[in-house]
Amino acid sequence: MGRHPADAAGRLAGAVLVATAARTVGRDLPAVLAERVLGDLSPAWTRTGRIGTSLARRSLGAGAHPAHAVAVRDLLHATPGSVRVACLLAMARMDLVGLAGAEIPATVLVGSRDLLTPPRSARALTSAWPGAEMTMLPGAGHMLPIERPDDVVEAILARIPPARRPPRDGGRQRHALAGVGHAVSGVGDLADHEVLARVGALDGEQCDEPGISACMPPMAENGGGPWAPPSK
């Protein structure tokens, strides 16, 4: 819906917002100044390498499968730098004020361990959107379509009028979503220890321990867990 939610009211029956927020980047700055600051930071976001690794760590909840870390890292590395910068600028332009005219029923999904668009941002978004309700998924991070595909599918189906809902397909929709991480990263056929070793290679380490936590240090802000960002 972009910055014109009221314009979409006559065309949409409902909306599901997955791990998002309004004005999370530069939220304490005027929009124009936020864009200028982000523009100065853009060179760092046009490079591949540790940006992808760092964001992959911050994107997943504590219980994520190791293959998901590889999938997210690969997706971030494959994203052109210009697209990363455009994404940051778009987030700087988002504002809760524009939601005042959004009367479309909406569901806001957020993971309890989302470090990128945390629950407090989802609560602010829900409060500013008339008719919106928030659903928090315990233990999940930012990548809900990968971490909790069943919950995302159910939330979408719930917002579709009964007469227009697609017929049940025995779970094929869910299985297709659940397989995204494996399909993107190419690790679907690897044994667990091979996946762990590949995730450990994100930091140039060898990770052959039975748990992924050997390579991903915990952090109190994320309640501990293997997917927390490294300590500063």
TrEMBL record:
One of its GO terms (molecular function) is catalytic activity. Residues 11-155 form the AB hydrolase-1 domain. It comes from the Bacteria. Pfam families: Abhydrolase_6 (PF12697). This is AB hydrolase-1 domain-containing protein. It comes from Actinomarinicola tropica.
